[in-house]
Amino acid sequence: MTHESQQFASDNYAGICPEAWAAMESANVGHAPAYGEDDWTQRAADAFRKLFDKDCEVFFAFNGTAANSLALASLCQSYHSVICSSSAHVETDECGAPEFFSNGSKLLVASTADGKLTPQAIRDLATGRSDIHFPKPRVVTITQPTETGQVYTIAEIQAISAVCRELGLKLHMDGARFAHACAHLGCEPADVTWRAGVDVLCFGGTKNGMAVGEAILFFDPALAQDFDYRCKQAGQLASKMRFLAAPWVGMLENGAWLRNARHANRCATRLADAIIEVADVEPMFPVEGNAVFLRAPEALLEYLRAQGWRFYTFIGGGARFMFAWDTAPARVDALAADIRAGSTFAQQAAA
Amino acid sequence: MTHESQQFASDNYAGICPEAWAAMESANVGHAPAYGEDDWTQRAADAFRKLFDKDCEVFFAFNGTAANSLALASLCQSYHSVICSSSAHVETDECGAPEFFSNGSKLLVASTADGKLTPQAIRDLATGRSDIHFPKPRVVTITQPTETGQVYTIAEIQAISAVCRELGLKLHMDGARFAHACAHLGCEPADVTWRAGVDVLCFGGTKNGMAVGEAILFFDPALAQDFDYRCKQAGQLASKMRFLAAPWVGMLENGAWLRNARHANRCATRLADAIIEVADVEPMFPVEGNAVFLRAPEALLEYLRAQGWRFYTFIGGGARFMFAWDTAPARVDALAADIRAGSTFAQQAAA
Amino acid sequence: MTHESQQFASDNYAGICPEAWAAMESANVGHAPAYGEDDWTQRAADAFRKLFDKDCEVFFAFNGTAANSLALASLCQSYHSVICSSSAHVETDECGAPEFFSNGSKLLVASTADGKLTPQAIRDLATGRSDIHFPKPRVVTITQPTETGQVYTIAEIQAISAVCRELGLKLHMDGARFAHACAHLGCEPADVTWRAGVDVLCFGGTKNGMAVGEAILFFDPALAQDFDYRCKQAGQLASKMRFLAAPWVGMLENGAWLRNARHANRCATRLADAIIEVADVEPMFPVEGNAVFLRAPEALLEYLRAQGWRFYTFIGGGARFMFAWDTAPARVDALAADIRAGSTFAQQAAA
Amino acid sequence: MTHESQQFASDNYAGICPEAWAAMESANVGHAPAYGEDDWTQRAADAFRKLFDKDCEVFFAFNGTAANSLALASLCQSYHSVICSSSAHVETDECGAPEFFSNGSKLLVASTADGKLTPQAIRDLATGRSDIHFPKPRVVTITQPTETGQVYTIAEIQAISAVCRELGLKLHMDGARFAHACAHLGCEPADVTWRAGVDVLCFGGTKNGMAVGEAILFFDPALAQDFDYRCKQAGQLASKMRFLAAPWVGMLENGAWLRNARHANRCATRLADAIIEVADVEPMFPVEGNAVFLRAPEALLEYLRAQGWRFYTFIGGGARFMFAWDTAPARVDALAADIRAGSTFAQQAAA
């Protein structure tokens, strides 16, 4: 298959990047102890500790739904609540997983324009009710970058963590595309996480080029107590753990995690730049990660579909395009050309 | 690494078999829709339907803990109970996962000599209490082969399913090593499952040569209603599903699932045969699958450890050896030789 | 204590009405079998069946949080969702109980002006998403009367149940103050429940004059299967059940349930009527049940507090007054007089 | 009804004692704030603090199933386990409630002759497994007196709490009949609870003469953090709390709790003494509380049934008789006489 078939409906459409694949191949030699007692798991955990310059506790889960839900469940009890944005993946796309893993913790959602929580929104939700009839807020979760591709600055995270500490809340970061945020910010992973006050990070591997797998990093080891039991009970402990861990070694030890993310981000910018002057088309959000959300007339979107493009749409006319580690720039250009052509088509149709 | 390093503490120590690997490699080309909308997932499900000669509903989960727990949870409510053997993996080694996924379903355990449930044991547990203060029995789960390597015959399963139907119980089969049971029985998978009255089967891929992944087969489609939502909520829906599905294609379409199991079983028999005359050593259970449990003096076990062998032991002196798709017969022979030498050593020590 | 001490912050402030008390006293004679095997429990269930002209299944729970949550949990699985109004008690005041009892079912809230769901709002929520990443809608819950005291007409409920049937949703009614709705509508309980398409009703006893206790009525017996086990497991099966059941006998057999509700409703109307011309004060909602929500200047509310009145307030200046079976009309008049005086006071303060 | 109708199948058959009733009557005057903000709740909590000579945290739940399950859930996470006797009520008669409230905590049962856990049994269960595949022991629960009526001595509890502290386990006491244990021991409640190392006590009110209600006492306030939210979410917060609290005032402030228990215990002893010489009949357990378990021939039991007696029987021929605060000694004598007559009858039948 060549890049002509690439679709940008989701960054989950891409396969396994060479570095992750090579590490799996290296790991697939002979025998190794099960359940994380192997060398690859140790090496992957150490790679995270080095990358974050922190002796954190590292766990591996199969996917982001589980990683986020387990992390949140470990930070609160069933009668507590979790503050998040109304567009947070945990609220909109995990089929009630956070509530399931926590046995009932309620999500308190703040309506936000761009998916970013603010200190004020957190304060409002955390202090709006203090009676026993309402679940007590205990955790804040932010998605970095947000589901629409905006990246919290270090200062923004510091401000959020300050209000969290003031109000006795823990701060969790859903980093399904954490690498893309780092690529955008050009900062050390530590600066935008524990140094900025994040307690727990779910670092996404799948969207970064792996087949499967997310890492959960507890920067405060005390919060990780018995988390291994929690993973096991919840069906998230891989028996042949080396195959969940080795790809991380491949990604982290040679910088593929960042290269992949930078490439995906650049493809997003490439599309955004290419359509900047196209009539009736405009980005719905600043393009900071690997996503481009375009507001466009339905006729244009219909034109794109007729050309074979697949993408998610949203109420009000938006279309989402997500780029991956393997996106071919030529294919982005082809999309941009079709958008341009579609715009003309749509204008003629409307005339 | 050569086979000199092979250990038989667990069949999870083995890696990915060539057929599964090749399929993953084939799948890692270009883009594919996420969450099971891809061709590989369809093809894997169809392969199961062909293998079982049944238009069953097929789901893929990451590991056996999740597959079994989700299947059991789908068959009962929190106030129901699940009948199993006292040595069932769901009771002894899943850290309360069945209780967690079902939100409280209790396991009712029957003490059994060989890990096999009997119709009488099921009847006793299912009818012992009928008051509201005790969770109502709704499901029977059997492990095929049992955790100690015994294989239910088709007639035994038929007898169990008959009592299940009589008492209004569903029948679940934990087939973490289902392939090994088929290899032992030499029967069609259908004969030992749905044709014998099994409602749901969890077919293990990991111990059969895959990196990760179990399949859940509902032979009665009505029981599978909304099971896809259940998997999603519980963190068991892979985004890049093709990598969970493709290995199954590699395993099923060319018979690797059965070849792998036969090889593992033969290695177990090879060991059992080789130590048949060794003094003070005897199999604790009939060797029907890929496991050999040996009763042996502690001095002998100590000797083996000194030679570098790793294995699990049990109260009373037993040692477990599990063989995999890649077990080198020469390595089995080396173990047998060490057992023989250890026996002599132990006898001298005792003298 | 005389009525001078009565407060209208909540209808839970009232005690046990004479009819409920007398029945408890009658029940407190000699010995009776436990766990609902007694005559009082049978008699109470029969009284419900007679009142509703329906051979329904009747269960008794300790409070409304449990009754509603158990009923909802019985109508869906953890990966399903429940449609409710944004002001529904299950959403705002049960500390995540529905999510806890159901092990994760998400509430989908419709913003409503008056707390009433509409067929269109239900349709929008039920059909907005149909992908696996979002919990599948399975139940609609309406509060009758709503938390702000509006009563669904029979026609409104029929329209809601029609859309429920069309979309495969079950219809649950939170009747914490169901008696007050019947008193307002002047209809048979059957007309506003099962005859209008309601599947399950939680009929509140506490706010109607009992010490404790709610009844759960399944109009479709099939939905009640094993619900007794569900109650038991969830800590809602009273051992000395006669004391939970007898008050219902006292309430239902002689019409106290309706008399109490009528009295409370009349008191609400009495207050509303009395302040109709008071400057700067107006009802926030139509007064149809036993609640009056008043929009009033903060200075007026402060004045009322200074006179010793207790009440809940809401963002934007609202104050809630709830009337009970024992409310003394003279005390309502006293409140009205103080509101009038407070209005004058507030106007002078503002001048 | 006169005492001729008294049955001893359960101490839940008895009604409400005069002291509890009078307190409820006193509480049923005028209005009182809801959800425990009333004076009666404060007074009841204070009465417990005085009785236990300890500034403990006190909560009120509707029944023992909930009280025990909530307390255990507060002491562990879903992946932890609870050590109990095989005859513990939480294991045998709560329909999986502990697993439900805790979202999956497994009960580890020790087979015991008399229902009493021993330090050795606890140690064995707590240290038998330490791998991640088995839920980590975190709590020990003992029933005082046991389900068969044996009372732990202070020294026994001290020994148990010592091993708990050593192994990092919390100690919970199911005191469904705690008063009866105190009556038997003749000690201060503090001596057999917190002074002996108990962390949390569920003090049963129902079997002690109340209509409904159990108290949960946290002797270490830190363990009680947010327990009020836990109760609320789990449907155990009474709105008209005064009616759950007032009976405790009636029971505790004037010693009724102890008088009632002493009376019940004496009735048990009265029966045991009266049948001491009866042929073929013997107590199965020492009579220390308000229960008498008799081993007797089936013909004798059949004779008793024919005389109208109701009682629970057990595999192997045992019959249980439980005595309450209101048991008429003459009725005990009547039972004893019938046992004597039944014995003669059974011997003749066997001859």
TrEMBL record, chains A, B, C, D:
Reaction equation(s) it catalyzes: L-threonine = acetaldehyde + glycine; L-allo-threonine = acetaldehyde + glycine
Keyword Nuclease found: no
Cofactor entry: pyridoxal 5'-phosphate
GO biological processes: L-threonine catabolic process
EC number: 4.1.2.48
Domain Aromatic amino acid beta-eliminating lyase/threonine aldolase: 7-292
Cross-referenced Pfam families: Beta_elim_lyase (PF01212)
Keywords (A to Z) from UniProt: Lyase, Pyridoxal phosphate
InterPro entries: ArAA_b-elim_lyase/Thr_aldolase (IPR001597), Low_specificity_L-TA_bact (IPR026273), PyrdxlP-dep_Trfase (IPR015424), PyrdxlP-dep_Trfase_major (IPR015421), PyrdxlP-dep_Trfase_small (IPR015422)
GO molecular function, one term: L-allo-threonine aldolase activity
Function: Catalyzes the cleavage of L-allo-threonine and L-threonine to glycine and acetaldehyde.
Subunit structure: Homotetramer.
Family membership: Belongs to the threonine aldolase family.
Protein name in UniProt: L-threonine aldolase
